[in-house]
């Protein structure tokens, strides 16, 4: 019986998982940024050709909600799996070298991702009923909050990967 390790090294498998995690995070970041811009600064109808920023803000936010929920959960689960490698191979050397601020920001990243996962059901419920104007403010601020958490998590993860590398 062949296993994947007959074709790939253990480090290659972890690296592939990290790359997939990063690609999922970029997709999530793009969807959330699009949606947040659409609700925080909606595009006004302008006569004539519209520019890039206007078209960027002029999206139907409700169509992104389910994809964002799925992307957040899948990215979170893959990140939790990668975290096992991080605890042994990356965190310990960073502690030895005194990168405590970097580690502290990564701890905040973990909390932001977990809190985002916790508020995801409320986010989805507000977007499921997108035509109800009573939820406009809640929908707007929960989307902006999730987008900020996603940007923070993405940037901290990227910096941590640049500090130590992976594998």
Would you spell out the secondary-structure blueprint of this structure?
Blueprint (H helix, E strand, L loop, with lengths): L9 H31 L11 H6 L7 H32 L3 H29 L7 H29 L3
What would you note in describing this structure?
- With 167 residues, the chain is mainly α.
- It has one domain.
- Helix content is 76%, strand content 0%.
- It contains 5 helices and no strands.
- Helix 1 (10-40) packs antiparallel against helix 5, helix 3 packs antiparallel against helix 4 and helix 4 (100-128) packs antiparallel against helix 5.
- The longest helix is centred in the middle third of the chain and has 32 residues, at 65-96.
- The radius of gyration is 19 Å and the shape is elongated.
Sheet having the most strands:
none
Strand content: under 5%
Structure annotation, total helices: 5
Give the class from helix and strand content and strand pairing: mainly alpha
- Listing every helix as H and every strand as E from the N terminus to the C terminus, the arrangement reads HHHHH
Mean pLDDT: 85
Taking the alpha carbons of the first and last residues, their distance comes to 27 Å
Number of strands: 0
Spatial extent as radius of gyration: 19 Å
Whole-number count of domains: 1
